[in-house]
Amino acid sequence: MLSKKQLSDSIEYLIDQGFDAPEVGIVLGTGLGQLVDSIENQKVAHYNNIPSFPLATVEFHTGKLIYGDLGGKKVVVMQGRFHLYEGYDFIDITYPIRVMHGLGIKNLLVSNAAGAVNLDMKKGDMMVIDDHINLQGGSPLAFKNVSEFGERFTDMSAPYDANMNNILLELAQEHGTKMHKGVYASVVGPQLETRAEYRMLKLMGADAVGMSTVPEIIVANHLNLPVCAVSVLTDECDPDDLKAVDIAEIIAIAGEAEPKMVRLFQSLIERL
């Protein structure tokens, strides 16, 4: 169950810490933490100090909200997100989105590391998400008092903001960065997919697969919050030539691609 008091306690704590009217919220994915180095005049709140906030448990997800200046705007960045595979429920996973919205953000940017199901996409490339397939077996809106926070039957005909997606694609071209557009499938994990599962995902129309993002997108739409999301493709998922996955290599590839993503997000924020 989600309560308005929980949210107000979290929001009031952050306002007291100097998180004053951020315009843009950012969620950083696996191996994608460098963006915070570009934020000026930082204020930091660790998750374990924020009332009602979940705690990040994955070793490469630090747990803090960072507020400051980026691209000429006030931003709040979630460094360390929550996943179903850690044992969280959908309300926990999406709680920070509701908090950032309560602080005043007008746009949400999301990043993740994903596997390329579409073999025209290569590791190290990026993909702006145009649509998604929810394979996580549930919804962050499936709780009794959801109508206190927004429309229960939230429309998902266009979950990603076309204007921000188009700006990102233009910026990628200007920067000489390879940027695809495609469909992201979100699974539970934490195990990686089998050969048969990759074939299924391709038949479904997925271009990339990961273990996050979709719950946050659903809640952003519930809040009428414009959102865009970018996948950094860290491995190629060819069921006919499937290699064992090395998580350290995935983190390394995400880290190599990250400076390009940081530049794109910063340029996008300047244009919003």
Automatic annotation (TrEMBL):
Q: EC number(s) of the enzyme?
A: 2.4.2.1
Alphabetized GO MF terms: purine-nucleoside phosphorylase activity
Q: Which domain of life is it from?
A: Bacteria
Q: Which Pfam families match?
A: PNP_UDP_1 (PF01048)
Q: Give the species.
A: Nonlabens arenilitoris
Q: What is the organism lineage in this UniProt record?
A: Bacteria, Pseudomonadati, Bacteroidota, Flavobacteriia, Flavobacteriales
Protein's recorded name? Purine nucleoside phosphorylase
Q: Which GO terms describe its cellular component?
A: cytoplasm
* Keywords carried by this UniProt record: Glycosyltransferase, Transferase
